[in-house]
Design a protein that fits this description.
By secondary structure, the protein is of the alpha/beta class. The protein folds into two domains: 161 residues, D-Maltodextrin-Binding Protein, domain 2, CATH 3.40.190.150; 99 residues, Periplasmic binding protein-like II (D-Maltodextrin-Binding Protein, domain 2), CATH 3.40.190.10. It contains ten helices and ten strands. Strands 1, 2, 3, 4, 5, 6, 7, 8, 9 and 10 form a ten-stranded mixed sheet that branches. Helix 2 packs across helix 9 and helix 6 packs across helix 10.
Length: 348
């Protein structure tokens, strides 16, 4: 009688009596295929999530009341994101504490890409230099993109007998303690820059803090204060009306919107450089594929539409990716800390 050896592992068995063994082997193969399919699904989940994002409304938090420059940037961006994604993108204004209330809300939000912050220099860079305690840290955010820059203008009431920044400094030296300057509040960017001008030139001028830009601009136009540093979107209507005058732009290159206004570097005061700016950030630990999806959409919107929309409103587009935003914010934090130390502005 001929004996048959049992088939080795991996061999097919053609004998009728080996049907059960064949089934066992097929079952094992099916299990292996099933495991691979499950593993593949798990590994593909982040990519699928990024591809599908967003599947529900997204909110852009702004740490200031409606109507300001940061709010304007957020609303222009929200419109473009809605058109790109087909999902509602709402702007939520959470004003208070120099923008830090809104920033804290986003820092503590779920890291899923559905709550984002259109952050400004105050809460993202300056707060650490001028506030004793803030409820979040830089590492609580994942930068997504740079949006705009709004350099400050040195503004004076039109009745002031000066036509340049050098003439303003000379006037202040002639009248020590008699000129006042307004700010948007103690510890704000325009307060720090104005103090830097005072310290570096040795002039004696008096700080008058206001609760926001509107009241400060009103008193500049009426002559209650003689000087104010403010951004182009806020100043432009009043410059056109002739009620105020721009002496210099606080950066190294001129603005296309006000090409006739010299820079502080051209005026002989290169140290006086600063701006407010806007950037898009998400909560830390937001999945990288989701951050990439948001970043790509924002970059396309800035490149295709928003650059012109920003410039039409006196905003300077920056248009940098996540890496550029991270480096920019870190550099700004260092700069404002240095200015606060130089001017002696103490944390409150």
């Amino acid at each position: 009688m001929e004996s048959r050896a049992a088939p080795g592992r991996g061999q097919a068995c053609a004998a009728p009596g080996c049907a059960a063994a064949s089934a066992q082997r097929c079952g094992g193969a099916a299990m292996r295929i099933g495991r691979r399919a499950i593993l593949g699904t798990v590994l593909a989940a982040p990519a699928l999530a990024a591809t599908d994002y967003p599947t529900r409304p997204v909110r852009l938090v702004v740490g200031y009341p409606a109507g300001g420059s940061t709010d304007l940037v957020a609303r222009l961006l929200a419109e473009r994101l809605f058109k790109a994604w087909g999902q509602p993108v709402t702007v939520e204004n959470r004003g208070g504490a120099a923008g830090t209330l809104g920033a804290d809300l986003v820092a503590k939000a779920a890291p899923d890409g559905y709550t984002l912050l259109v952050g400004a220099s105050a809460e993202m860079a300056i707060a650490r230099a001028v506030m004793r305690a803030i409820p979040y840290q830089p590492e609580d955010f994942a930068p997504v993109a740079l949006l705009t820059e709004q350099p400050f203008l040195v503004l004076v009431n039109a009745a002031q007998p000066v036509g340049s920044l050098a003439e303003l400094v000379a006037l202040a030296r002639q009248r020590p303690g008699m000129l006042n300057y307004a700010s948007h509040g103690t510890g704000t960017a325009n307060h720090l820059l104005s103090e830097l001008l005072r310290v570096e030139t040795g002039i004696a001028i008096t700080h008058i803090p206001y609760r926001g830009g509107g009241p400060a601009m009103t008193d500049l136009m009426s002559g209650q204060v003689q000087m104010l540093l403010d951004v182009i979107p806020s100043a432009l209507p009043h410059l056109l009306s002739g009620r105020i005058r721009a002496l210099a732009l606080c950066r190294t290159t001129r603005s296309a919107t006000l090409a006739g206004v010299p820079t502080t570097a051209e005026a002989g005061f290169p140290f006086l450089a600063g701006s407010t700016w806007s950037t898009l950030v998400a909560p830390a630990r937001t999945p990288e594929p989701v951050l990439a999806r948001i970043g790509e959409t924002v970059q396309a919107a800035v490149r295709e539409v928003l650059t012109d929309a920003f410039r039409e409103r006196g905003l300077e587009p920056l248009g940098g990716d996540a890496a550029a935003a991270r480096a920019f914010i870190a550099a700004e934090q260092t700069k404002w800390q240095r200015i606060a130390s130089r001017t002696g502005v103490q944390p409150e």
